[in-house]
Amino acid sequence: MNTGSDEPGEVAVVPDEAETGEGSADDGLGSRAPEFVKQRRALHLSWQVGVFVIGLAVVGAGIVMLPLPGPGWVVIFGGMAIWATEFVWAQLVLRWTKRKVTEAAQKALDPKVRRRNITLTAIGLVIIGVLVGIYLWKFGVVMPWKIKDQ
Protein backbone atom coordinates (compact mmCIF):
# COMPACT_ATOMS: atom_id res chain seq x y z
CA MET A 1 0.00 0.00 0.00
CA ASN A 2 1.10 3.52 -0.71
CA THR A 3 0.77 6.06 2.08
CA GLY A 4 1.91 9.25 0.41
CA SER A 5 1.25 12.34 2.53
CA ASP A 6 3.56 15.05 3.79
CA GLU A 7 1.27 16.17 6.60
CA PRO A 8 1.65 14.46 9.98
CA GLY A 9 -1.48 12.64 11.04
CA GLU A 10 -2.81 12.53 7.47
CA VAL A 11 -2.61 9.26 5.59
CA ALA A 12 -3.53 8.84 1.96
CA VAL A 13 -4.13 5.21 1.13
CA VAL A 14 -3.94 4.01 -2.45
CA PRO A 15 -4.63 0.32 -3.09
CA ASP A 16 -1.86 -1.69 -4.72
CA GLU A 17 -2.36 -3.38 -8.10
CA ALA A 18 -2.43 -6.77 -6.40
CA GLU A 19 -5.33 -5.68 -4.19
CA THR A 20 -7.46 -4.40 -7.04
CA GLY A 21 -6.67 -7.31 -9.34
CA GLU A 22 -6.00 -5.16 -12.37
CA GLY A 23 -2.78 -4.28 -14.16
CA SER A 24 -1.46 -0.79 -14.61
CA ALA A 25 -3.45 0.97 -17.32
CA ASP A 26 -0.50 3.12 -18.36
CA ASP A 27 1.78 0.09 -18.66
CA GLY A 28 1.16 -0.04 -22.43
CA LEU A 29 2.49 -3.56 -22.90
CA GLY A 30 0.84 -6.01 -25.25
CA SER A 31 -0.64 -6.17 -28.70
CA ARG A 32 -1.81 -3.01 -30.42
CA ALA A 33 -3.70 -4.90 -33.09
CA PRO A 34 -7.25 -3.76 -33.89
CA GLU A 35 -9.96 -5.34 -31.73
CA PHE A 36 -11.52 -7.32 -34.59
CA VAL A 37 -8.11 -8.94 -35.19
CA LYS A 38 -7.63 -9.78 -31.51
CA GLN A 39 -11.05 -11.45 -31.33
CA ARG A 40 -10.14 -14.17 -33.85
CA ARG A 41 -7.17 -16.32 -32.82
CA ALA A 42 -6.15 -17.39 -36.34
CA LEU A 43 -6.36 -13.82 -37.63
CA HIS A 44 -4.39 -12.52 -34.66
CA LEU A 45 -1.70 -15.16 -35.14
CA SER A 46 -1.37 -14.33 -38.84
CA TRP A 47 -1.27 -10.63 -37.90
CA GLN A 48 1.63 -11.34 -35.53
CA VAL A 49 3.45 -13.36 -38.18
CA GLY A 50 3.03 -10.48 -40.64
CA VAL A 51 4.31 -7.92 -38.14
CA PHE A 52 7.26 -10.18 -37.32
CA VAL A 53 8.18 -10.66 -40.99
CA ILE A 54 7.92 -6.92 -41.77
CA GLY A 55 9.96 -6.05 -38.65
CA LEU A 56 12.53 -8.68 -39.57
CA ALA A 57 12.86 -7.24 -43.08
CA VAL A 58 13.37 -3.72 -41.67
CA VAL A 59 15.89 -4.90 -39.06
CA GLY A 60 17.70 -6.92 -41.75
CA ALA A 61 17.88 -3.86 -43.99
CA GLY A 62 19.30 -1.88 -41.05
CA ILE A 63 21.95 -4.53 -40.42
CA VAL A 64 22.92 -4.39 -44.10
CA MET A 65 23.16 -0.58 -43.83
CA LEU A 66 25.63 -0.72 -40.93
CA PRO A 67 28.70 -1.26 -43.16
CA LEU A 68 27.08 0.36 -46.20
CA PRO A 69 25.97 3.98 -46.57
CA GLY A 70 22.67 4.55 -44.85
CA PRO A 71 21.12 5.15 -41.44
CA GLY A 72 21.64 1.59 -40.16
CA TRP A 73 20.90 2.08 -36.46
CA VAL A 74 17.87 4.27 -37.15
CA VAL A 75 16.41 1.59 -39.42
CA ILE A 76 17.16 -1.15 -36.87
CA PHE A 77 15.34 0.81 -34.17
CA GLY A 78 12.49 1.39 -36.64
CA GLY A 79 12.20 -2.38 -37.07
CA MET A 80 12.21 -2.80 -33.30
CA ALA A 81 9.39 -0.24 -33.10
CA ILE A 82 7.43 -2.28 -35.64
CA TRP A 83 7.96 -5.40 -33.52
CA ALA A 84 6.99 -3.42 -30.39
CA THR A 85 3.49 -2.90 -31.77
CA GLU A 86 2.86 -6.62 -31.22
CA PHE A 87 5.45 -8.20 -28.94
CA VAL A 88 6.08 -7.44 -25.27
CA TRP A 89 9.78 -8.43 -25.46
CA ALA A 90 10.36 -5.80 -28.17
CA GLN A 91 8.50 -3.19 -26.13
CA LEU A 92 10.74 -3.91 -23.15
CA VAL A 93 13.91 -3.76 -25.29
CA LEU A 94 12.75 -0.47 -26.82
CA ARG A 95 11.99 1.00 -23.37
CA TRP A 96 15.43 -0.07 -22.10
CA THR A 97 17.09 1.45 -25.17
CA LYS A 98 15.19 4.74 -24.81
CA ARG A 99 16.14 4.91 -21.13
CA LYS A 100 19.84 4.28 -21.88
CA VAL A 101 19.87 6.86 -24.71
CA THR A 102 18.24 9.43 -22.43
CA GLU A 103 20.78 8.71 -19.68
CA ALA A 104 23.66 9.01 -22.17
CA ALA A 105 22.29 12.31 -23.51
CA GLN A 106 21.96 13.73 -20.00
CA LYS A 107 25.46 12.56 -19.14
CA ALA A 108 26.88 14.08 -22.34
CA LEU A 109 25.27 17.43 -21.51
CA ASP A 110 26.91 17.49 -18.07
CA PRO A 111 29.31 20.49 -18.09
CA LYS A 112 32.28 18.48 -16.74
CA VAL A 113 31.80 15.73 -19.32
CA ARG A 114 31.37 18.26 -22.15
CA ARG A 115 34.53 20.08 -21.13
CA ARG A 116 36.45 16.80 -21.04
CA ASN A 117 35.09 15.74 -24.44
CA ILE A 118 35.97 19.09 -26.02
CA THR A 119 39.49 18.93 -24.52
CA LEU A 120 40.05 15.38 -25.79
CA THR A 121 38.75 16.32 -29.24
CA ALA A 122 41.08 19.32 -29.40
CA ILE A 123 44.07 17.21 -28.34
CA GLY A 124 43.18 14.56 -30.95
CA LEU A 125 42.90 17.19 -33.70
CA VAL A 126 46.28 18.67 -32.75
CA ILE A 127 47.90 15.20 -32.86
CA ILE A 128 46.34 14.47 -36.27
CA GLY A 129 47.46 17.88 -37.55
CA VAL A 130 51.03 17.27 -36.40
CA LEU A 131 51.09 13.81 -38.03
CA VAL A 132 49.73 15.18 -41.33
CA GLY A 133 52.30 18.01 -41.18
CA ILE A 134 55.17 15.54 -40.62
CA TYR A 135 53.94 13.38 -43.51
CA LEU A 136 53.68 16.34 -45.87
CA TRP A 137 57.09 17.67 -44.79
CA LYS A 138 58.72 14.28 -45.37
CA PHE A 139 56.94 13.16 -48.56
CA GLY A 140 55.34 16.30 -49.94
CA VAL A 141 52.13 16.44 -51.96
CA VAL A 142 52.18 14.49 -55.21
CA MET A 143 49.16 15.03 -57.39
CA PRO A 144 48.00 12.04 -59.44
CA TRP A 145 48.42 13.90 -62.74
CA LYS A 146 52.10 14.65 -61.91
CA ILE A 147 53.11 11.05 -61.32
CA LYS A 148 55.77 10.09 -63.84
CA ASP A 149 55.36 6.93 -65.89
CA GLN A 150 57.54 4.19 -64.57
Which features characterize this protein?
disordered N terminus; 150 residues; 2 strands; single chain
Task: Give the strand tally.
Answer: 2
Give the uncertain stretches in residue-range form: 1-6, 11-25
- Please give the share of residues in helix: 55-70%
The biggest sheet, with number of strands, parallel, antiparallel or mixed sense and barrel status, is: 2 strands, antiparallel
* SSE pattern, N- to C-terminal: EEHHHHHH
How is the topology of this model organized?
Layout: E1 2-3, E2 13-14, H1 17-20, H2 35-39, H3 41-65, H4 72-84, H5 88-108, H6 111-139
Helix pairs in contact: 3-4, 4-5
A few lines on this structure:
With 150 residues, this protein is mostly helical. Helix content is 65%, strand content 3%.
Tell me what you see in this structure.
This protein has a two-stranded antiparallel ribbon with strand order 1-2. The model is unreliable at 1-6 and 11-25 (pLDDT under 50). The protein starts with a strand and ends in an 11-residue tail after the last helix. It is built from six helices and two strands. With 150 residues, it is an all-alpha fold. The chain has helices at residues 17-20, 35-39, 41-65, 72-84, 88-108, 111-139, and strands at 2-3, 13-14.
